[in-house]
């Protein structure tokens, strides 16, 4: 008997998604057993399941296509879960471990929306250098940009997605993403950077050019990096007026006309701690933060 395709809300090991109602699904395969007769789901705070937070017990009414555990979630927490299945011919198996991790949930944002002190149509690079202590066991970045962004840590892009942060109803809510950047950090000097684009937030709308900057007239960014140390202490790096900005090698982008990239304008190591100090400042922008929501879209 093999248990596979463990999913939380139909996503494999979701990190930082909106998870108001948790639902687990799985698939069981067997050469002898025809169907599941009973199952048991366990949720723990550790991968070894020494600290179990929820145990369904062995139940005959459990639906492998949508089982909802009765568990109260806390913000910025990783949960591990597994399922044991019994079949109609006496077979049994326990799955590998899956996980899901909550985002900020109802936590307030210490960060501010920021924009480069450049012309509003200039595509900006934003950066911030910071120190990382010894003994960091976990580091997460919670970020969003209007319209598009890519996040870099010590010169490496965080994640493999493009066109983040995805779809917005700009007047009502904006998604933010969660990145596990633990492996991108090192003790000592570090740097985080963001490259912004117009996306569907600003610029021309309509083929006749009749609409301009419907939602906003400048590209903005918000982010919090939260470091967890071995002793349980936290360190936060947030977007504020201390960040720096510079023109991006992207000199134009638009949803109709593509992008113009001028490689002559590249800044070596712009998202690394060794970047030069010839940068402009940033300004904080008065935009709502209570409309930020954990990511909805895969």
Give an overview in words.
- The chain is built from no helices and 23 strands.
- It is mainly beta and 298 residues long.
- Strands 3, 4, 5, 6 and 7 form a five-stranded antiparallel sheet that branches.
Task: Provide a compact summary of the structure.
The protein is an all-beta fold and 298 residues long. Helices cover 0% and strands 44% of the residues.
Features:
298 residues, mainly beta, five-stranded antiparallel sheet, 44% strand, single chain, 23 strands
Layout: helices, strands, pairs:
Elements lengths: L1 E7 L15 E6 L6 E9 L7 E4 L22 E10 L4 E3 L3 E4 L11 E4 L7 E9 L3 E11 L1 E6 L2 E2 L16 E7 L7 E10 L6 E2 L5 E2 L7 E10 L4 E5 L5 E4 L2 E5 L3 E4 L20 E4 L6 E3 L4
Parallel strand pairs: 13-23
Antiparallel strand pairs: 1-2, 3-4, 3-5, 5-6, 5-7, 8-22, 9-14, 9-19, 10-13, 10-17, 11-12, 11-14, 15-16, 17-18, 20-21
For the sheet with most strands, the description reads: 5 strands, antiparallel
Strand tally, please? Answer: 23
Distance between the termini: 30 Å
User: pLDDT under 50 segments (min length 5)?
Assistant: none
SSE ordering: EEEEEEEEEEEEEEEEEEEEEEE
The shape, in one word, is elongated
β content, as a range? 35-45%
Oligomeric organization of the protein chains = single chain
Return Rg in Å. 23 Å
Number of helices: 0
Structural class: mainly beta
Overall average residue pLDDT: 95
Q: Specify the helix fraction band.
A: under 10%
């Amino acid at each position: 008997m093999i248990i596979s395709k463990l999913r939380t809300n139909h996503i494999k090991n979701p990190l930082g998604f909106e998870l108001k109602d948790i639902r687990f699904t799985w698939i069981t395969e067997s050469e002898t057993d025809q169907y599941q007769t009973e199952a048991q789901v366990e949720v723990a705070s550790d991968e070894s399941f020494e600290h179990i937070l929820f145990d369904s017990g062995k139940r005959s009414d459990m639906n492998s296509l949508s089982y909802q555990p009765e568990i109260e979630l806390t913000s910025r927490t990783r949960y591990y879960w597994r399922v044991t299945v019994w079949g109609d011919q006496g077979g049994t198996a326990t799955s590998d471990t899956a996980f899901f991790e909550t985002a900020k949930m109802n936590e307030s944002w210490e960060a501010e929306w920021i924009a480069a002190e450049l012309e509003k149509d200039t595509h900006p690079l934003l950066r911030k250098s910071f120190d990382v202590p010894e003994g960091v066991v976990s580091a997460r970045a919670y970020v969003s940009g209007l319209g598009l962004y890519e996040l870099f840590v010590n010169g490496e892009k965080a994640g493999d997605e493009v066109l983040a942060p995805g779809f917005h109803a700009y007047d009502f809510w904006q998604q933010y993403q969660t990145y596990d950047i633990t492996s991108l950090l090192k003790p000592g000097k570090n740097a985080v950077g963001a490259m912004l684009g117009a996306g569907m937030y600003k610029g021309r709308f309509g083929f006749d050019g009749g609409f301009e900057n419907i939602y906003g007239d400048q590209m903005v960014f918000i982010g919090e990096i939260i470091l967890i140390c071995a002793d349980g202490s936290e360190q936060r790096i947030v977007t504020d007026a201390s960040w720096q900005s510079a023109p991006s090698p992207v000199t134009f982008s638009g949803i109709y006309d593509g992008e113009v990239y001028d490689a002559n304008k590249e800044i070596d190591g712009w998202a690394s701690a060794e970047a030069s100090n010839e940068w402009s400042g940033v300004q904080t922008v008065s935009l709502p933060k209570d409309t930020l929501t954990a990511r909805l879209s895969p």
